[in-house]
Amino acid sequence: MSEDMLFTGIDIGSTAVRIAVGQRLPSADKEQVHIIGAAESPSEGINRGVINSIEDAVSSVSACIEKVERMVGLPLGNAWVSISGANVTMLESKGVVAVSRPDGDIRADDVERAVEAAQTVATPVNFEILHVIPKTFTVDGQSGIRDPQGMTGIRLEVDTQIIQGLSSHIKNLTKCVYRTGVNIERLVLGVLATAEVVVTPRQKELGVAVVNLGGATTNLVVFEQGDILHMASLPIGSEHITADVAIGLRTSIDVAEKIKLNCASASPKEYKKDDKVNLSDYGTEDDEAVSLKYVAEIVEARCEEILEKVEKELRSVGRSGMLPAGVVLTGGGAKLPGIVDLAKRKLKLPVSLGYPLNVTSITDRVNDLSFSTAIGLVQWGINDTPEEAGRGSGIFSRYKPVERATKRMKKWFGVFAS
Question: pTM of the prediction?
Answer without folding.
Answer: 0.89
